Input
Amino acid sequence: MRGGFLRKVMMIPLSPCAVYVLDRVLSDPAASSRMERILAGLGSAPKKITVITAENLPEVVAEIDTLWPPSSAPKGVPESWTRPLVFTLMEMGRADNIAHLLKRWPGDVNTAHLRRILGIWTNAVDQHPHRLDWQNDCVCWPTYNFGTMSGCPHGCRYCSSGREGKFIAVGLNIEEYMERVVIPVIETYPWNKVFRMILDGADLITFEPEYGLHELFADIVARYERWGYFHTASDNVEWLAHLRHRDRLIGVWTLTPDGIAREFEPGAPTGLERVRAAARCAEMGIPVRFKLKPVIPAKNWQEEYRAFIRQALTLARPESMGFAVYMWNSFESLSASLDLSLLDPDCVRAARDAREEMRGVKTGPFPHECRKRIYRFLVSEARRWDSEIPLYLSTESREMWDELKEELGQDPSAYICGCSSVAVPGRRLALCPGFRYSTYHPGPV
Output
């Protein structure tokens, strides 16, 4: 096992090739202590920690672009676990203006790196508003997303952060974040019953319990009688047993069959390890939900998914299971990110033939009929092992929902999914006047 929930209660043992800390962290006692805990949880102690100052910031921005991927990784350590770590303080409610810094430096500066190093990233997002999803032909639920980190150690080939991200930026001032971002959002949106901790390509529980984010998050949602999601592809869960308000958290797992995970998710636990971790959370009283997302049509995808769905639905009892075929791509970006020789040739041919038709379409690169064939197979396999579990499509088109709603057994206007704002524990929807419908409708009614 690469992870394993029976190991010590510590974060996954990363081996960053470099570690940086913004100088302002060192004058913040809570942030500095948090960094020390995370450093103590690493697989090996860093040889050097570079303090980022106003004077060396340009050099750090340039240097960090050259460090990863490394020429080699330590034996037994996934390459994606060696990404540099940058410890920083999140800039909340302050002006996102770096023009004054850029004037000081000659030549080109990677402004995306600069913002992440300085903690200037999105703190909360109004995700999937009705009007936007209607324009994009995307069926989901509006919800608010939170996040305190940028980047991920899993190295998934289908994810730009996992495939190309140069470093992981860790926001350390999370007490301030709770007071200035999380609490105001919760108080402003009473219809939002469950909030997601998910932003910027991060799998936040991989840094627990040293990080301490979810303990604070659980305490706050409990105070307001709400719930919070951790959305993960990790098996690092044993620390959850020690949280006083773990009953206010809901675990949502991104799942991939073991063979496909080995090819496309090199730094993540296998799908089976994730299922076992979810089962352990269920023993703790934490509701768990599964998403097969993205569904990657590998050469042997039917055999892989048939065996895996049986394991997932017999080893654990998730509250729901969702499906989303690999999407948000063109045929060209599919070709650049995944090895086409590993994929089902019929699906590759369908995507190639439809590349102009699917250009700019959110559900691309695989055309409608190809995706529908995959969904029908997955739904039928799930129903073999659980006749009552709510099944759904994640961020799919209205047309796909119209064709498959009878097989899924849910109304796309108001369906139980894995991580919506109203999917409270117990396979229930906490709808209210003014918020009764998913984005299958153009707006709340």
Q: What stands out?
A: The chain has two domains: 19-117, 124-429.
